[in-house]
Amino acid sequence: MTACGGAYSPETRRKYYISGPQWAAAYQGQALFHAPTRHAIDFEEVIREYAKIGIGYWTTHDTDVIPYEALLKDEQWRIVERIKSALRENGLQCSMVTTETFHHAVWAASPAAEAPQVREYAALRLANTVRIGHELGASFVVYWPGSLGYYVQGAIDETQMLRWYADGLNAACEADIQIAQQHGRPTLKHCLEAKPFEPQAEILLPTSDAMLAFISSGLLTHPEMVGLNPEYLHELMWGAAPRASLARALLAGKLFHFDINDGYRLKHDVDIAVGLVNPLDWLNVLVLLRSHGYNGPFNLDYKPPRTTSNRGVFSVSFPTAVDRFITLWEMAGDVIADPIVQEATDALKAGGEPADSRDAEAIAAANRELLTLHELIAHRMVQILIGAHRGRHYSV
Ligand code: 3MF
Ligand code: MG
Ligand code: MG
């Protein structure tokens, strides 16, 4: 890290609304074809290490911290008390909670399965997470319906399953309204997170756009409480331009929360840390978010690679991810304030010489030279990304 030129201080890092998930730091490197490469760690260690790095917010699934046997029982509140002490002692806040509705066998046919018992259990779990969220002082609750779908088609009616899924969300919003009132707190922001593939073979809400349609479908009783938690890689996975997906969410007023990471198009969910694969695209994304005043959390939903050790998770993986994010955020500010980008953008918006508005050839001719500025702006962004805008030596 020192050889890399140093790092931001924990104080600087804490100024950003960056959250560290319990599951990301505790991930042991396992997958279907991969054995774990790291030993298990508990939430006390994760919270302590995040505090040292300067990650000011912590997020969790209910089952990252509460075993299934303790869920919905008195025992879970003893764990919640331990979490509260760990957060307090380390000066962290819990910003988001989420219900695990994908791992346990009970979700094999999804949380909106045919069996009423499964849906009843799902509703209990969602309300319970809302209650835990209020207890921990969270502002957001996230839903990743990755198991809402099927492996083999024909048995389920998609419209029915989506209605049942909406019933679950409606119950969670109703529970939130009551629990928030009891706590004297505002209701939580309920955020849907899309992923196009995994763990079901076919997913009913595979993209952020599908979720926007679902939110405004008329099935939700409180659509104003429900928005999105897009994940950068989940959009890239289906071939989207993440910046355009985020723009659509911004226009709908639904960009509540954002999972940040990186990876490759049309591959599985490799969850690489932010900026390690597509730094230029990330710079573009942050220019969009900065210029539209996004002020929600940036949630570090990535997986330290299997080749990183337990020590490396906190000495390299998390601090470097945070620092790349901050550097890219500052560069986005440089792009927005850059006189060349500004002048070129203004010139493009002014348009070319006046031309007869019924004459396509004349309009194209008037703008032909001007449009070269698109490529100049792209060049300028690369210069800002690699630092060449500060001047460099040309060797010829
Ligand atoms: C899966 C994810 C999830 C969600 C999490 C929050 C394990 O690909 O991205 O992380 O972010 O369940 O609801
Ligand atoms: Mg995610
Ligand atoms: Mg992911």
Please describe what this structure looks like.
With 396 residues, the protein is α/β, with parallel strands linked by helices. The chain contains 15 helices and 10 strands. It has helices at residues 10-14, 22-26, 43-53, 62-65, 74-90, 116-136, 158-183, 208-215, 232-237, 242-251, 279-291, 310-337, 339-350, 360-367, 373-386; strands at residues 18-21, 57-61, 93-98, 140-143, 149-150, 189-192, 202-203, 226-228, 258-259, 298-299. It has an 8-stranded parallel beta sheet with strand order 8-6-4-3-2-1-10-9. Strand 9, helix 11 (279-291) and strand 10 (298-299) form a beta-alpha-beta unit. Helix 3 (43-53) runs parallel beside helix 5, helix 12 crosses helix 15 (373-386) and helix 13 packs antiparallel against helix 15 (373-386). The mean pLDDT is 97. Bound molecules: 3-O-methylfructose in linear form and magnesium ion (2 copies).
Order of strands across the main sheet: 8-6-4-3-2-1-10-9
User: H/E order of the elements?
Assistant: HEHHEHHEHEEHEEHEHHEHEHHHH
What is the overall pLDDT average? 97
Portion in strands: 5-15%
Structural class: alpha/beta
How much helical structure, as a percent, in the residues?
A: 40-55%
Span of the ends, CA to CA? 34 Å
Shape: globular
Task: Please count the beta strands (DSSP E, at least 2 residues each).
Answer: 10
Low-confidence stretches: none
Rg over C-alpha atoms, rounded to the nearest angstrom: 23 Å
Count of helix runs? 15
Largest sheet: 8 strands, parallel
SSE arrangement:
Blueprint lengths: L9 H5 L3 E4 H5 L16 H11 L3 E5 H4 L8 H17 L2 E6 L17 H21 L3 E4 L5 E2 L7 H26 L5 E4 L9 E2 L4 H8 L10 E3 L3 H6 L4 H10 L6 E2 L19 H13 L6 E2 L10 H28 L1 H12 L9 H8 L5 H14 L10
Parallel strand pairs: 1-2, 1-10, 2-3, 3-4, 4-6, 6-8, 9-10
Antiparallel strand pairs: 5-7
Helix pairs in contact: 3-5, 6-7, 10-11, 11-12, 12-15, 13-15
